[in-house]
Write a structure and sequence with these properties.
Blueprint: H1 2-14, E1 26-29, E2 33-36, E3 47-51, H2 62-65, E4 75-78, H3 91-102, E5 108-113, H4 115-126, E6 130-136, E7 152-158, H5 166-172, E8 179-182, E9 196-202, H6 226-244
Parallel strand pairs: 3-4, 3-5, 5-6, 6-7, 7-9, 8-9
Antiparallel strand pairs: 1-2, 2-4
Length: about 250
């Protein structure tokens, strides 16, 4: 049985989407996670715990997350088994325990792309010190109801996403705090209340360009560059963090 599981894991790993390139901003890498260099020291901002999309190498998100290093105290990218975050939903708990052992008042924002957002939603639902949830082309499972959770949630989509299940997304909005749709960063409220959600669409963006791993099967062609999609994504998260009081 163990051999069969090992073979299955190897096969899954061999099918992973690999990064084409990524910035040299890694502070530490272990078999469990990658931590990026902090942009500044002494900040009271929350930690960001990020879950990669299904079968996507975690390094493929460094280019996007590198643009957000001044928003968070530190960014930690989970390295799930077989590049499937769904297999390591609790992997972040050990990391969080280590941080809380030295920082009593540390807080956390969970984020994930696609299938990684499922894991992020589960963790945001279970961790007491969770401040927020960032969903990139993702939504919680039917069993993860965060609608009454004291969270600030930002959901980001690309208008040309060909992978994302928009009908399920609309249905799962009931599992998130009440929210509003905005079309422009300037439409973002000055203050983001607890237990509320913001939904933002990147015009011309697709599913693949949140990472740097090439074109994902089933996706639609983006009408903006990958660089612009990542820039807009980082900008809305930065503005959201200010309004949320992070």
């Amino acid at each position: 049985m163990k051999i069969r599981l090992l073979i299955w894991s190897v096969l899954l790993c061999s099918c992973s989407y690999l990064p084409s390139s990524f910035p040299d901003s890694i502070e530490k890498e272990t078999p469990e996670y990658i931590s990026l260099l902090p942009a500044s020291s002494g900040t009271q901002n929350p930690y960001l715990i990020f879950y990669p999309g299904g079968l996507v190498d975690p390094h493929a998100y460094i280019e996007l997350l590198d643009l957000m290093r001044d928003v968070f105290k530190q960014i930690i990218i989970i390295k799930p088994n077989a590049n499937l975050a769904i297999l390591d939903l609790d992997q972040a708990k050990g990391i969080i325990e280590d941080i809380l052992s030295t920082e009593e008042n540390a807080s956390f924002v969970f984020a994930g792309h696609s299938l990684g957002g499922v894991a992020a939603s589960r963790m945001a639902n279970e961790v007491d010190d969770a401040k927020g949830l960032l969903l990139l082309a993702s939504y919680p499972t039917q069993s993860d109801n965060l609608s009454n959770k004291n969270l600030q949630v930002l959901s980001i989509l690309g208008s040309n996403d060909g992978v994302f299940d928009i009908q399920t997304f609309e249905d799962r909005k009931d599992n998130l705090p009440p929210g509003i749709d905005i079309k422009d960063i300037l439409d973002l409220p000055n203050t983001i209340e607890n237990n509320s959600s913001i939904y933002f669409e990147i015009e011309g963006g697709n599913h693949s360009q949140f990472g740097t791993y090439g074109f994902q099967e089933g996706d639609n062609v983006a009408t903006i560059t990958a660089k612009d999609q990542k820039r807009i994504c980082a900008e809305i998260i930065s503005h959201f963090s200010i309004a949320a009081g992070w």
